[in-house]
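Section 5.1 Outputs to date
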Amino acid sequence: MSDHPAAAATTAHTADAAATGGRERALAALERARRRTTALTDCLDEAGLTAQHSELMSPLAWDLAHVGNQEDIWLVRAAGGMSGVRPDLDSVYDAFRTPRADRPALPMLPPDAAREYIARVRARALEVLAGPVPDGVDPALFEGDFVFGMVAQHEQQHDETMLATHQLRRGPAVLDAPDPPAPTSRAVDERHGQVHVPGGPFTMGTSTEPWALDNERPAHTIHVPAFDLDEVPVTNGAYQRFVEDGGYRDERWWHPEGWAYVQRTGLSAPLFWRRDGGNWVRRRFGYIERVPPNEPVMHVCWYEADAYARWAGRRLPTEAEWEKAARHDPETGESRRYPWGDSAPDEGRANLDQRHLRPAPAGSYPAGAAPCGARQLIGDVWEWTSSGFTAYPGFTAFPYREYSEVFFGGDYKVLRGGSFGTDQVACRGTFRNWDLPVRRQIFAGFRTARGSGEAD
């Protein structure tokens, strides 16, 4: 999205907190996000944290303090009704004030000072979490403990951004994780199959998910004609055939703006791929390895995904098609929270939470399949759709316009489903990510569709 140990907290909640359903989930989400932030920053020295590893990304030290600043603004001040810990830092860590490329020139806190700052903020935030709703505070922030979920999701989103910065960083590997488990049932080879999604209405978006963000709301009925969808994301092996067939040299397959981008930048393969003799190899978090043919392709921009789909005689699915495939249960007519149902993700259903540092092989996680039969719709790689990022009918910005509304208009393309670097708190069947169609550093891949591509 444009711009994955917390301080000790008491588990004793006031009667007011208990009356609103308790806040154990919120506390767990905040602590999990902070553990991840700590792991992604404690592994580098000060030079590694303050350097800008790519103009596309902030220095890691900026992200570290930024998550604390947002928590200061929303949990300490807006929800707690208290004076901020460091209001003087707001302009330094305002993501809309300074583009990423210019952030190294900001008067950022040194890493140790940033750690001390976010710890102070967290201590104050936990006071708010454990207390009653203060007088004069917008009660809507506390409905379903939304404000705590919003802040936890924000930190996890920046954790995924920091993980992408680690992938861009040159130097020895500092992150490690086990590989995903091998598929426990039939694996899908690089010539993957299709599933059919019948036409008809379904409920898109949500009006009941307590931590859903404003762009996921409200729920609304939409008619989607029948279409076919790839059973799994497009694999490296399948994408390699496009590359070796001269796909990057053939204007026929490219959106005009994409072709101009290819000509201007010299793109010839996914980001981090290169030839080594007769093999394709890639750099992944400091290691060089052969490109595994049966993993979902990633680090491709929207233009590359669109070009591959045209080359294959197909197209990218619309956002509505993707969500219907992922959520619609034809037996009940209901829309699920996740492809497999309403229960939270676990290790047997999806590759999330930075448990692994790569996508799982295509065909993994059969327990996470949708009713239509599509697999790996949640986790592994974000999936580009053909749709621009726009508001749903009846959209209302909450709690601030800059989260979603300022990005509406179609210049940004919607991605769905999350990646191996997405935490489950920031991933569900209704969750909408978006980015510019040239972006390749994100953990994005795609799957293709065939059908009318229209929705009402």
